[in-house]
Structures are given as structure tokens and as C-alpha cells.
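Late entry, written up from scratch paper. The run itself happened at the end of the previous shift, but nothing got recorded in the book at the time, so transcribing now.
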Amino acid sequence: MNTIKACILLLLMAVGTMPASAYATDVLECEAGAQMVYATEGNMPGAGIHFKTHYLDSWRTGVSGNYFFKKVGVSCYDFNIEENYIFNVGEKIQLYPLVGGSAIIWHADDVNTSGWNFGKSDKTHYELGISVGGGIDYLMGERWLLNAEVKYQFIKKANQVLIGVGIGYRF
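Output as recorded:
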């Protein structure tokens, strides 16, 4: 149960720091979007959403949540908070490194037949981790953008690479 509390605390900290970042700049720019993702651990495709707040010209904080489609009786939820530093490479392309925290929740329909071993008899397993990686945004006008991102998650029992492509809207 402590892991659930840690995940909730991580999410509350992320959301709580976003409005405070608005005071660092005259204009607060936010971004919301959706993405298709792939996790190498378990070979699982999924879908997700993200919300990012831009501040101090080149910095942004973001939160995201992904659901990985059930495979061999196991589904997975992935929640992230991360910080990006944006490098403008021309008028329409932005590159960024990322670093942040992750909370992963796996759920097995039946621990005996799923083939996944969490070391317990529980059907649900939680882990916290650290993410590092990078991405690229392609600006398709004043508000819309395409995005691609790769990050490595350092997780106690399941280090993995996440690959995502998506679309976002800035407001």
C-alpha cells in the first residue's frame, strides 16, 4: 500500500508545481496531447495522454499516463513526471533531453498462468523508477505539433525502453 501512496504523492507533486511555474514567465504556455507508445519489457504496445507546462523560455514540466494493452493476461499502467530543456533547431524543430520519475503498475489476471513473476502471489505489482531520454517536436503551425520520444526507465524489476509518437496542442 505504501507504493500506491508514493505514486499518488508523485502525481500531486507534479500537478502542484505546474501553477507555480507560471510566475517565472509573463506568458504561460501549456500543451496537451495523445500518443501511441511501445514498451520493450513485455513487448507491449499502448496509448497515453500528456500535459506539459512551458516556463522560463526553454524549460517545461510534464506529466503523462500510458496504458499498455493486455498481453498474456498482463496489463500495465505507466505514470511519469519529467523535466525537459528545449533546444530550438530551426523554426519548426525542437529537440529536448528529459529526466524524471516513473510509477509503473502491472496487473495480471492470474499469477499462475501469466508467465510474469513479480516474486509475490499478488495479481498487482507496483514499482517506482527514474526515466532519462530525449525527444523531438515538429511544430505544424502556431498550435499543433507532432512528437517522438524515447526514454529509458530504470525500474527495480523491469528496466525498459519506452518509444512514443504523438500529437499535441498548445494553448
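The beta strands are 29-39, 44-55, 59-71, 74-85, 87-88, 93-108, 124-139, 144-155, 160-170.
(Scratch paper discarded after transcription.)
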